[in-house]
């Protein structure tokens, strides 16, 4: 670690967190210790924090106060982690219909968040300072596993309007101080990709962060350009938000000359698991309880695939208790060779999005269109199918039915991205069908880039 990085991670970033009233520094320091605890000690910590969370929501969160009363449940009835199964599952529909009732009555300074919408089922929810602090701490700890830290030069390839819309003067200054450079993942034209490669060479980052599809796309472009990128001193490429495929890992690693560290989670569920240098996908057990359930909601044993359901223990202000992620995963009961006691996810079968090709040949991330639909509250679910450069089909499940205003908003947004002459065929459907494999793909492009 160089002197500047030490100054940022040891002084300036902690000062920022202090002024924001975030407890991320203390949380990360505790996590650095607890990651080495044995399984039983971690479970004891989880049980203690679970009791604290349930005691709070029983007293202060209207939704759970009513549910507990209907069930005759008391928080003091929790004697083991298996007792969690007595509580109802939480899904996006339930949250959508109970947003206000899920807010703690004594919550202050809640921040409004959206999910990315890649599942086709967007969600609006709220996060308090405790949750933010613990999520920052979890990511920070995982960053340090790879020998990099806050303050090391970083390139972020991202597409969220939350980040892209926040690039005001204060944010720009903060990014310069933290040596973070944001590259928008929405547009992947040849010209943009050339600029990205130049930017990466100029910054010479120690770490990359972004969607696996975006980083692998940039890597393939560098290879096509015969431009060497493995001599920049990049130590690790962190990927998240999509399923990481083996060929993507190989492409990114080969092109940038660094290992790839997978991360699993989301804005709603939190930072569920991170990959360590030994290959273990470690669950953030201090904050997250993971259950793997079958279609009837029963717990599955280690090694069997089922839905990933999470309870985030730092969500008193807006609880995520037994939250259905919609992803399929497998728990592992074998320890990681790194020596950490944190439990492992053996397999994650998450969702991913495709790239789309605009009428002029511009390649862009599927999220460019997903965000347009996500921000329309009437749309409950959707699927985008690109048949050709001239035709996009949009399947939508709409609350209250379609109307001309909604159609116009979709058409305007899509044409602004894809081209004014592109036909946008919008079809209202009662439900979004799965693929033949049983998996869901919410952005499907049948158009190959030039």
Strand arrangement in the largest pleated sheet:
4-3-5-6-7-8-9
CATH architecture of the largest domain, by name, is 3-Layer(aba) Sandwich
CATH uppermost class of the largest domain: Alpha Beta
DSSP E strands, number: 19
**How many domains in all?**
3
Helix coverage percent of residues?
25-40%
Terminal Cα span: 42 Å
What class, by secondary structure content?
A: alpha/beta
**Overall residue-averaged pLDDT value:** 90
Largest sheet: 7 strands, mixed
Distinct helical segment count: 13
CATH topology of the largest domain: Rossmann fold
Low-pLDDT sequence parts: none
Q: Give me the CATH superfamily of the largest domain.
A: ANL, N-terminal domain
Q: Report the C-alpha radius of gyration, rounded.
A: 22 Å
The global form is: globular
| SS strand fraction | 15-25%
């Amino acid at each position: 670690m160089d002197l500047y990085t030490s100054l940022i991670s040891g002084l300036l970033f902690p000062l920022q967190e202090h002024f924001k009233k975030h407890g991320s520094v203390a949380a990360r320091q505790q996590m650095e210790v607890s990651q080495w605890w044995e399984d039983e000690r971690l479970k004891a910590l989880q049980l203690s924090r679970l009791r604290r969370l349930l005691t709070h929501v029983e007293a202060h969160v209207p939704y759970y106060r009513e549910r507990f009363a209907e069930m005759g449940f008391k928080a003091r009835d929790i004697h083991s982690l298996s007792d969690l199964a007595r509580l109802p599952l939480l899904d996006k529909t339930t949250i959508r219909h109970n947003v206000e009732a899920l807010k703690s009555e004594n919550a202050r300074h809640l921040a409004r968040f959206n999910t990315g919408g890649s599942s086709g089922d967007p969600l609006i929810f709220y996060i308090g300072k405790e949750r933010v602090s613990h999520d920052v701490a979890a990511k920070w700890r995982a960053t340090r596993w790879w020998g990099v830290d806050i303050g090391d030069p970083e390139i972020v390839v991202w597409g969220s309007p939350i980040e892209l819309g926040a690039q005001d003067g204060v944010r720009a200054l903060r990014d310069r101080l933290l040596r973070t450079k944001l590259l928008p993942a929405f547009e992947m034209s040849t010209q943009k990709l050339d600029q990205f490669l130049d930017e990466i060479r100029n910054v010479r980052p120690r770490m990359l962060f972004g969607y696996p599809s975006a980083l692998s796309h940039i890597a393939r472009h560098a290879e096509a350009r015969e431009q060497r990128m493995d001599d920049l001193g990049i130590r690790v490429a962190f990927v998240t938000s999509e399923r990481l495929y083996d060929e993507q890992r190989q492409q990114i690693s080969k092109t940038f000359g660094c290992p790839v560290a997978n991360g699993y989670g989301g804005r709603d569920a939190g930072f569920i698991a991170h990959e360590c240098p030994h290959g273990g996908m470690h669950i953030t057990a201090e904050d997250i309880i993971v259950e793997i359930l079958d279609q009837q909601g029963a717990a599955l044993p280690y090694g069997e695939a089922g839905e990933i359901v999470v309870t985030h223990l730092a969500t008193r202000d807006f609880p995520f208790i037994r939250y259905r992620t919609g992803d399929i995963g497998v728990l592992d009961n074998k320890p990681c060779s790194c020596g950490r006691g944190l439990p492992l996810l053996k397999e994650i079968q998450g969702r991913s999005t495709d790239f789309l090709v605009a009428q002029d040949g511009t390649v862009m991330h599927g999220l460019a269109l997903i965000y347009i639909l996500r921000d329309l509250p009437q749309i409950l679910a959707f699927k985008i199918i690109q048949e050709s450069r001239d035709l996009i089909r949009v399947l939508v499940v709409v609350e209250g039915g379609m109307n001309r205003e909604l159609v116009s908003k979709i058409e305007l947004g899509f044409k602004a991205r894809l081209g004014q002459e592109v036909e946008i065929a919008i079809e209202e459907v009662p439900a979004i069908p799965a693929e033949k494999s049983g998996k869901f793909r919410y952005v499907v492009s049948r158009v190959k880039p030039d």
